[in-house]
Amino acid sequence: MGAFRIVLQVIFILICIALTVLVLMQEGKSAGLGAISGAAETYWGKNKGRSMEGKLVKITKYLAIGFMVLTVILNLNVF
Known about the structure:
single chain; mainly alpha; 70% helix
């Protein structure tokens, strides 16, 4: 069981690094001058979920869920 714990810890570290990189790659919610003038409701604003930024947000959500699950599993002290 010790090897399984080590594998989980390596996966946990990789998820931590990936989350850090993904969060730093994302734009802020109020980034750009379009937010000031109300131009956020443009084509790009409406289809943001299909853009690269939308994909980054989805991947970040999935990695955050994996992070939380692995945190709970590693702290159960079963392994």
